[in-house]
Each structure stands twice: as structure tokens, then as C-alpha cells.
Amino acid sequence: MGSQSISRVACVQMCSGRDPAANMADVALLVREAAEVGASLVVTPEMTNVIESRRDRLIEKVGRQEDDLSVKALARLAQDLKITLLAGSVALRDGDDRLVNRSLLFAPDGSLCARYDKMHMFDVKLDNGENYRESRSYTAGNRAVIADTREGRLGLTICYDVRFPELYRVLAQAGAEILTVPSAFTRSTGKAHWETLLRARAIETGSYVVAPAQSGVHESGRKTYGHSMIVAPWGEVVATAGEDIGILVANLDLDAVKAARQRIPALEHDRVFKGPGNQDDIRVAS
């Protein structure tokens, strides 16, 4: 699929609750609003279909990819609006008692053209008492994914992945021009690290970073940071949101990707070096 130099891209910022049908109604309104202002690529946040802290309840609310009602609704939305739609992530069943946190990319005809399973599980205990153990419920992915769209070549990632720069370097070296980081960042980590991490990933790779976010106080009690953001390949924040629900729109010029990588060709400068102690040789990127 050939890409155009300049395209209009939108991030959806929402506050997903416990009811997938209600969340799909909310996201449909926001995606339609983005299409109305000319966005041809629309990206929704992590856990677009549902945010539920209890695994037993969550498994009851979602299906397998082939029969999940939210997946079908998102495919129809892309087809109806004739847009490229990246469902930043949805929770889906992976067997009887496991889940996957999966990005799904729909082409303008509604067909599924790529999927990516979140690789890095958010297993942390924060100072404020919040405790997350994604690995208890979710099966981690093990493959990096790139997808060609009319808007450019996308490198797909999800939320906590952003703390692992090696993934982004590999995606960029494989040709990704736009790196997507749909997220549900906690408020405490968002205030401290969100913008810095996104700008770093853009600068390191000379790529656009498109990062839609969950925002607000969710029915499950979780509190997310919001501040969806679009960052240019030289590190400038070209668009940013606050905490309100809505859309964030910007024009992306892929010539800026080429220019940034020509100015600082760091993606070409990998070195093999000795690890500390008795570790084997280490390569910065494969």
C-alpha cells in the first residue's frame, strides 16, 4: 500500500468503562468526529473495549478475536468511514482463562491488516500503593509488527513497551515511519515520564510518535493520565491534549522522517561491544 507524504492523523482520548457496548458507542462518536475533520488515520488508546480490574469479570465481557463484538464494531467503523483505524488495544480471550492485550489495524475497507500483542507486561508496585500484575492475566506477545498503510509504515507498540527503546529501534530500522503508543498510563507515572519517554522514542528513531491515551477515573477505580500526544521526528510536540475526553489531530509529513534521519543517521551506527564481566558480545540493535 503506497503512502502519501502528508496525512492527517487523529488520536482518540477516552475513559473506557466496564461495559464494552457503551465503550464502543463512545469511541464511535469520537472516531466519526475525527473523520469529519479530515483524519484518514485514527488511533484509539489501550483497552479501548473495556477497563476492568477483576480478571474473572473481564474474561466474561470479551471474546476471541474472531467472534468478539467490539472487534466487529471497529471493523464496520473503519469500513463505513473509509479510514485506516488502529484499535490501539483491545482485551481479547486467549484460551479459557487467559487474555491478550492486542492492537488491531483495520484498512479502509474494514479488513484486518495487522495485529500486535503487547510484549512487555506492566508488573509493578507503585509508591502510592497501586499494584499491577498484567502477567497474571495476559499472555505476552513475542513478535514486533510493522504494517504498511496509505498514511505511512506503522510500527505497533502498546503502553509499557515505551520503556524499552530497543523495540522502537528495531521497528525504525525495519522501515517504520510512525510509531504508535496507545496507552492507559497511570497518573503518577504519566506526570513523571509520559512526555519524556515519547519524545525520546521519537528522537532516537527519527520517527513520528502517535500516542492516544485513556484519561480520567474509570468505573473500575483506575485513574489514568490522559495527555494524548503526537511528537515529530525531531522531538517537537506537535499536538497534545489535556485530561478531557476528545480527539487530537495533526498533519504528519513523512518528509520530516527522512530529514531527521539524514541529519542524525543514528539508526545506521550500531556497534558490537563487549558486555560487562563475562557476558557475550552485545549488539545495540539486531
Structural class computed from helices and strand pairing? alpha+beta
CATH topology tier name: Nitrilase/N-carbamoyl-D-aminoacid amidohydrolase
Largest sheet: 6 strands, mixed
The fraction of residues assigned to DSSP E strands is 25-35%
- CATH homologous superfamily, by name? Carbon-nitrogen hydrolase
Strand order of the largest sheet: 5-4-3-2-1-16
User: Which quaternary structure do these chains form?
Assistant: single chain
- The global form is globular
Number of helices: 6
Helical percentage: 25-40%
Span of the ends, CA to CA: 26 Å
Q: What CATH architecture do you see?
A: 4-Layer Sandwich
Spans of at least 5 consecutive residues whose pLDDT stays below 50 are: none
Q: What is the gyration radius calculated from CA atoms?
A: 18 Å
* Overall pLDDT score: 94
Q: What is the count of distinct domains?
A: 1
What is the strand tally? 18
> What is the CATH class designation?
Alpha Beta
Structural features:
single chain, 286 residues, alpha+beta, Nitrilase/N-carbamoyl-D-aminoacid amidohydrolase, 6-stranded mixed sheet, 6 helices, 18 strands, 26% helix, globular
